[in-house]
Amino acid sequence: MLKKTALLFVIAFTLNACVSKKVYQDLESKYNKLRSSNSQLIEEKDNLLATKKSLEDELLKLNKDFNELSAQKAQLENDLEALQHKYTNLDESYQALSAQSSKKLAEQSQKNQELLAQLEEKERILAAESLRLENLQNELNQRSEQIEELQRLINAKEAQMQQLKDAISSALHNFEGKGLTVEHKNGKIYVSMENKLLFNSGSWAVGSEGKKAVEQLASVLAENSDINVLIEGHTDNVPYNGSTISDNWDLSVKRATAIVRILENKKVNPTQITAAGRSEYAPVDTNETNEGKAKNRRIEIILAPNLDEISKLLNE
């Protein structure tokens, strides 16, 4: 519903020469929500990595406890063997002293009973420790399986994104050196297109060369329906001086939605796509030089994997 509302507002901007303050404020509010959603995705990934680290630390602690309990079990077994040997010796002594006075026989019997009680207590402790050790081993195995599954899912997502990056690089290789870059970092793919490839100055109409690049990208995205696509429009810090729209905020949003329309027309699922305008406030270079301004005037297409499967595993 949010995306449909945003699209209606963009169409309203196209049809009207002047934009009311309320419409601008609504767009700014929606942009802030989209930006917050993007930040939440990054935070979610960071939380996943932190959870993995916590589970690995817990696994190390469980291994340490397991080793300590194993050592305790071995000591108890040694104590049990020593007591059994001592009991055997005392029993032999008891037999040798059976002819002695009843007092000594009673004392010896008492010692034997005490040793038997100690032996039974050691056996009880050993049985309890063995059960605890078995339970700890089961828990250790479960945690290890969970960590392995989490790592498998993370590796699979990374491999999927690398394959997607390779496919995009292959599809767009004809545009290398023309203001287009493809980068894989932080588990996401960043496709950056400078405005010289896409738009004329102050315009949000995509040129033929830029449209061809976006369509070739769309052919890859259409085959990856589980990838989230964020389209960000960026400008330099030169104020917009036209009369059709208000300022660089409007211009960056219109340029982002212009890319969205091309993707939609090429069968990219609209539910995958988010459009946002960031005006001049996320530069990648200085605005003090013409070269820096040219780099700042761009479209960023940020591709992120769907993390629902990993979130489900962590909530189990």
From TrEMBL:
The keyword DNA-binding does not apply. Gene3D superfamilies: arf6 gtpase in complex with a specific effector, jip4, OmpA-like domain. GO terms for cellular component: membrane. PROSITE patterns: OMPA_2 (PS51123). This is Chemotaxis protein MotB. SUPFAM superfamilies: OmpA-like. Keywords: Coiled coil, Membrane. Residues 24-174 form a coiled coil. It comes from Lutibacter agarilyticus. The keyword Repeat does not apply. Residues 186-307 form the OmpA-like domain. Pfam families: OmpA.
